[in-house]
Structures are given as C-alpha cells and as structure tokens.
Amino acid sequence: MVVAAPAVELQERSPGKFAAVGPLTFATARRARESGLAAFGAASARELEVDCSGITSSDSAGMAVLLDWLAFAKRSGRTMHFASLPEQGAGDRADQRCTGAAREGRLGPAAGG
Predict the structure, then answer these.
(1) Which helix H or strand E contains 22, and what residues bound it?
(2) In whole angstroms, what is the distance from residue 50 CA to residue 75 CA?
(3) CA 108, CA 39: separation in Å to the nearest integer?
(4) For residue 87, with 0-12 CB atoms within 10 Å meaning exposed, 13-18 middle and 19 or more buried, which class applies?
(5) Model pTM?
(6) CB 71, CB 105: distance < 8 Å
(7) Within the chain, where are the H helices?
(8) d(CA 88, CA 59)
(9) Which among 9, 38, 24, 42 has a CA at the least distance from the CA of 85?
C-alpha cells in the first residue's frame, strides 16, 4: 500500500498574503507547485507574499517550488516576497544562493535568454 505524503497547504490570509503550512519536499513538490500557481493566478493583488514559517520540512525540491512561484510572479508582472524561509543545510552552497535570491524576491536572467 502506498501512502501519499501530506501536501503543503497554501492558505490566503488576506488579499495577496499567503501562508505555506506543512512539508515542502520532493514528496509534496508537484502538488505544492500546482496549488500555488492556481492560487497566485486567482489572486488579484499585484504584490504577493508567502509566509513560510509554517513549513515543517524542506529540501531542494521545495526550494525549486519557491523559485518557480517567484518566476511565475515575475512573468505575470507581479512581485513576490517570502517571509520566514526555512534554513537550508549549511553545506549546500547552491541552496544557500537560491534561498538568498528567494528571500530577496529576485531572479537572475534565464539560461540562454
């Protein structure tokens, strides 16, 4: 029997202000990405904020979801900020750079573009 991992829940607390609650890991990344894109697409606010203090565990797949949400906001002509991002492992420089970019709400130019 396969047991599905609990998905991270994205709650809109007020217009444009969301809270992510639960694990944001490889096991939940696909559902988290899809639910986030749907929620942000339906939001009318130009400035989006995601409070990450409720994220109970995270890994590189979770970070990829946050960066994908950030890219979606940028493509949509919106801004997105993350509050209370989970700390990444001290030994992973790529995750540290991604966390810094996400914390500051910025992305570099796309590869090849």
Answers:
(1) strand 17-24
(2) 17
(3) 24
(4) exposed
(5) 0.75
(6) no
(7) 29-42, 60-75, 93-104
(8) 8
(9) 24
The residues spanned by each domain of the chain are 9-104
Compute the CA torsion angle 35, 36, 40, 41 (nearest 10 deg). Answer: -50
Fill in the DSSP letter of residue 98.
H
In the sheet that 47-58 helps form, which strands lie side by side, from edge to edge?
9-14, 17-24, 47-58, 79-83
| Homologous superfamily (CATH) for 9-104 | STAS domain (3.30.750.24)
- 29 touches 36 (CB < 8 A): no
For 11-61, how does the pLDDT look when each residue is reduced to its tens digit (9 = 90+)?
999 999 999 999 999 999 999 999 999 999 999 999 999 999 999 999 999
Residue 22, judged by CB atoms within 10 A of its CB (0-12, 13-18, 19+), counts as: middle
d(CA 40, CA 26): 21
**pLDDT tens for each residue of 52-108:** 999 999 999 999 999 999 999 999 999 999 999 877 554 444 445 455 556 556 554
